[in-house]
User: Fold this.
Amino acid sequence: MKTEMERFIKIQILTELEDAVGRENCSVREIDRLTHSVDYFWLSRMWADRGRRMPEADFIVSPKDAQETSKVVKIANYYKIPITTWGGGGGTQGGAIPVCGGILLDTKRMDKIYEINEEGMYIECGAGTIYKHLEWAANERGYATMHYPSSLTCSTVGGFLAHRGIGVVSTKYGKIDDMVLQMEVVLPNGDIIQTSPAPKHAAGPDLNQIFIGSEGTYGIITKAQMRIYEQPETRRFRGFLFKDMHGAFMAGREILQKFKPSVMRLYDDAETASLIKKIVGVEKPGAFMNVAYEGVKELVDVEECILLDTFKKYGAEDLGSGYGEKWWKEKITFFYPGNMMDLPQMFGTMDTIAPYDKIEKIYWSMKKAVESNFPQAKFIAHFSHWYEWGCMIYDRFIIEGKDVPQDPEEAMRLHNAVWTLGVRTAIENGGVVNDHHGVGIKLGRLMKEQYGPAMQVFEGLKKSLDPNGIMNPYKLGL
Amino acid sequence: MNISKKARTHIDACRFCWMCRHICPIGNATGQERNTARARALGLSLVVRDAEKTEEIIDNIYECSLCGACVKECVTGWDPVMFIQEAKTDAVLAGVIPAYIEKMLEAKEKTGNVYGAVLSKGFPEREIGAEVLLYLGQDARYKSPASCKNAAAVLDKAGIRYNCLKEEPESGYAMWFLTGNTAETQSAAKECAAQLNRYKNVIVYDPADLSFIKRQYKEWGIAVTAEMVGFSNYLLELIGEKKLEVCRSKRAYTVQDSFHSARELENAESMRKLVAQCGENRDMLCCGKDTFLAGNLIMNEYMPAAMREVSRRRLENAKNIGAETVVTESPAEYEQLLALGDKAVRVLSAEEMVLENVK
Assistant:
């Protein structure tokens, strides 16, 4: 009887969702539920690799705009069923996995380019726009988005915003939260709101920053105005080899007090000897650093002089422009299957960020904690987004397939133990849970450890905006 | 699931990778996550692991246009087209293909073409014992009467003596598209080769057929003794030999590259050379080997709304650069771009462009 009732209600909900978005944009087909159950999160991949099925949504809906999204959210609220937002599914933290079933809202039909505003230097687009398509739209008018993460071709505008993403030229152009002017958001009650028309204001807290990084727990981003930039007159590269990490940090810190390169990436000895050797061809031992500087030629000439003088002081070996240019060309190639870590290996990126006075200590503490507690794990890192006050660590652990338990539950246990230890060590030494991949279900448990009583701010917002707790449950520690 | 070890390796490589998502014309048009190479690979990887059934994912296999943009994009050499075609063959042999595919195969059996169509009135049939054959292919013959008429008209204008068959064998491309590498597909290919080999020269109108004959026949060891030439190349030859006298106009043309020519045959130049004879070439975003599909008439039979959106998006690319006229050598893309009825941009076949500039 209960089964019949459930079946009846499910069809009832389905017909309402079909009414909201159109029958062709609402699916209960197995292929759609399956493909939205596995994202880039290692655990979901391992689960599928072992022939297991991840939790699946009951309904997959693809609204075309905020109005349709609002209708879907209202239906979810009425029936009190979970609603998980999916952009490109390229997230590493399991943020898009519908762990509680319910509705999976795929944003990719919201991919309209509404306006290319060359005076205001922004493009208004649907949140489901694949970022590479936004880049193409900018390129067609002679501009660039300057947001070039490895997932540029995989992920959506909304996905980057919801997880506070970052690209390789961030040191000059900023993170995704620096690149957005205004957003349209559908709240959990179905209301459609606009954030302020410009981001830098004193009209209260910045609404953009409340929703950026909220991973679909406070609402669904449906539209955004993303900044575009003039193409640089020139972009130059310089590779350096440092004898030790300390000198590299000091050199990087000093250069940031003088000007902002676009790319700054420092690889530790282990990553220089592995990935950089393989992809870029640097054979010598040491810590490789690639720097790019760009803009108006006259300024770039001056910046180059400052860069060379400054790095010389710290004993850096100037490797010329070749390695850097090769790196730029291959910057996404790193992440193709065959070049990237893959199953049966276990791996993860525990990126964190801290001021310069803490960053080295965090790196060494995490390395020691992971390698001594999990001797089967390799720990490699690079430092790829730099500010005047500090930088981030993109640190990765890798466990070879032979050391990964075949039993998926045991593999999950080991995976979570490495993560807990690594991130906890970062927090204890002044880092944060994550730098630019987000929290998802992977790190939710560590949010309270990070924030302590400050977590009540997030929880208060959650309770107020989403009293039924339907928006992306078990993500972000909320 | 009976697929090769190579296919399994490629499936496992692709199942968690989205790097080619942005260039999938179907995925871009539908916005559906299942229309990615990784979704197809994920589904197949679970079938291989007995955690999924082919019947549940087979529709999605048929939602791929086989345009190869993903193959071109992959820097590490993975090939979704290969494993998709193996999956189709496996589904055919297991008897689990979708009903709409079955229907097209039945039409092929009954009528000789997958559309179950008849030739239009005015089809330029001629069997005059010529050494040259104009091989039109199924899409042009049964779905694009204008292509047939104009192809004949431009050859007539050049004074070419050629045959155009009322009973033309299918190259095997449509069968390959629907069933992969089956015995029936190879049999169709052999039958076609035998017919083509009766001629000294064969002008192949549709790049889909030309590419299939040049690549797949060779792989299967099917000998083609006739000299094969693509239609746009042939037009260039006629212009070079002054059999067609073309006057370069001030018009600007934007080439919609057929992926068969630009990627599979690595020839994006012929169309541009042809355009250069007729006017100014103005390329749009993602052209040449990076081209996006603009239409597929086989898929249009079972997913017309998605195919219309594929064509609409490609025409938008042209409009974004201010294109006046889009020129294509593919009858499928020609018909589907025209069917949009967009008055802002003209859509011409290669021969229409030549004819409007011929002296």
Summary: Chain A has a mean pLDDT of 96.
